Amino acid sequence: MPLLKRKPYVLSELPTDLKPRQHVYQIRFTREIFRDYDEYLTKINLYRQRVWTCKVTAKTNLTYEEALISELNATEKIQQFPNELVPLVLQTVQFSMLTLKDLVNTITEKLQYYLLEGEELYGKRDDGVCLCQIMKVLAEGDNRTRYEVAWLDKDKKGIGTAVVNVEDLIRKRLPFTREVLKSFIRESTNQNVPWVLHDKLAQEHGISTDPPEELRSKYFFKDGYLVTNKKKRKIEDDKQNIMETRNGQVGKCKKKVEREKSEGSVMENSAEKEDFELKEEPINYPIDDLLVQPGPDDPVFTDRPSPSRDFTVPMDCIGDLLMVWDFVSSFGRLLHLYSFSLQDFENAICHKDSNLIIIVETYSAFLRLLIKDDGQYFTVIEEKKRKPKITIITWTEYLCDFLEMIEIPELSSCIPTIKRGHYGLLETQAKLGIFRELITQVIATDLFRKKLDGYIEERQTLAATKRGEAIEEGRKKREEKERLKAESAVLQETNGHGLENANTSDDALGNSNGKNISKKQKVDAKVQSESGKDPCEKEANKMTLQQPRADKKEASEQKNVEQRREYLQREIDKRFIRKEPLGKDRDYNRYWFFRRDGRIFVESPDSKQWGYYSTKEELDAFKGSLNRKGVRERALQKQLDKSYDKICLELQKRTKDVAQKIAMEEAVLRRSTRVRAPPRDNPAVAFLKYVNKWKED
User: Fold this and answer.
1) 3 with 9: CB under 8 angstroms?
2) Which run of H or of E encompasses 605?
3) Cis omega (within 30 of 0) on the bond before 87?
4) Alpha carbon distance 580, 665 (integer Å)
């Protein structure tokens, strides 16, 4: 059992009065059961902290589950410890006052010449060393032991026998490691210094549990543990205080006062130690969000906006609605189904018409793919001798065949209604349930699997290309930085030489009357004085003129790199594999963003409540309400920062489209009743105009 602060930790007791079908929370690796979610969360957060110690190996800074796994692995190694050596090791360990390191050294030295039958080692033979195996231990007088060994060749086959002394045998290593011995000692004892074996283990091997004479004056047994006499004296003093209080005696006896004076310094040190331990340690963030408390260093958090909930479909159907729409939008090319908006799909699902084109085409796309796969559904169609082409008249027959094939009672009850031509009268839950089962069947087809494998390979190739270009770009930047650094060093060195030359020329001109100066120096000084400019200064001016051109070129190259990176990311996103949420907040609400819809959807932990944010202002307010001290909200904020520009662009685009639709609806309402507009011109019923442009001929 893992240790908490180096002490055994007792698990919570299982509730005894549980009712059938009662909802409870269970921790997987401890099997603890809780009725209250807060108690479960508190316990699981404790198990996730790195404060646990493996009891067998003494490894620290582990989570509970890591410590549990470490104990299991170490226990398996302990089982390999030779049984013949167990009594001798336990006898040495019992009531030993040595540290673990010294105790292991003592046992190792003692077992170095303790040889067992069947053990393979090396022995001296004919002025050489040969591999051998102990066949029998021969005890002789004077505490001498000889061994009958069998000599072995390279293939470990016997080539003869001999009787040798222990000095003639060479053991290169013990049949166990020091770490295994340490783990064995920890597993066999319940306390250390002095080391005390478990009572059951000691009785099993006939080892005395009574402490030796030298320890009886210092230790005594209490509740199965060896306790020092200081603790015993403290217990007796506590009992005496209780008795004195009961008898009304407030003063303390002289002997006790003298003892307290002698131990005063010790008590002061222990009090200081306790005060030090009680000091609150600084918290290392991030931690679990529910454990985060307000602090003086917190920024000003904005109020978290309430998500909108004006859905047309029932609240418990939003998850299935989003799943179906996202699937058909992502794999439209494979299904040969032209994409449509989430709003159109939602309106179509709630519409009572039984032959809506958008619904008929979606069902037909799924059923056609199942027929192409030559699977179970294809066999059903062949047995009923259906025509291969699905039309707006026959699509319900194919759908009923599918429902009969999957044999789900909740959906099979819809077959009579569909056969009568009243599909539109089905409940929204039933309609989305049929779509959900169709998607499940499509995902299992070979055609879909092959397409998905292709997407995975393409994503890996694109990701490798993106990673390689990033590495190359980094290499170029480093080379450019080193080049600029070298040029700067050369320029500084050249400027220094130029100043020295100028000073030399000035000195030569000033002392021309008193010194003999060469004609070449005079000419150089004259030319330099006439020109009035240093060559290094000219070079610097030239580089200054070239700098804007270089900056412009660098900006152009950087823009090309950014465009290339965005292109690769877009291509990776097109190879859709699986939709993942942006993250979770402190209350475990999940946040989803669908690029084709332009909204951020909010899902409750139990998936029963949904909402959405649809404006940039709501997104900014939500970001400002996240606390980075929590693990979940920090990860969510990081993901929002990463995709902020893309999300804002889609939100603004949706806001503009919604405003345009509202304006069109108002224009339709303002028209004269004598010139009524056709219903299809109203944006609210735009789904009626859907045409599948990718339909197969």
Assistant:
1) yes
2) none
3) no
4) 35
3-state DSSP of 43-100: HHHHHHCCCEECCCCCCCCECHHHHHHHHHHHHHHHCCCCHHHHHHHHHHHCCCCCCH
Please, are residues 73 and 66 in contact by the beta-carbon 8 Å criterion? no
Output the pTM of the full model. 0.54
Alpha helices in 339-445 (DSSP H): 342-350, 357-372, 376-383, 395-406, 409-412, 415-419, 428-443
The tokens of 238 are what? 């506590």
Residue 298 pLDDT more than 50?
yes
Among 410-414, 440-444, 573-577, 677-681, which is the least confidently predicted range? 677-681
Query: Could you tell me if 339 and 596 are in contact, meaning their C-beta atoms sit under 8 angstroms apart?
Result: yes
552 Cβ partners below 8 Å, 6+ apart? none
Task: Tell me how far apart the alpha carbons of residues 536 and 548 are, in angstroms, rounded to a whole number.
Answer: 20
Q: Which of 358, 327, 296 is nearest to 452 (CA)?
A: 327
**HEC per residue, 122-147:** EEEECCEEEEEEEEEEEECCCCCEEE
Task: From residue 168, give the alpha-carbon distance in Å to each of 123, 128, 173, 598.
Answer: 6, 11, 16, 84
630 DSSP assignment: B
Q: What is the pLDDT of residue 284?
A: 85
Measured distance CA(200)–CA(221) in Å, rounded: 16
Q: Which residues pair with 75 in a beta bridge?
A: none
Burial of 61 (C-beta count, 10 Å sphere; 0-12/13-18/19+): exposed
Angle 100-111/86-93 helices, nearest 10 degrees? Answer: 140
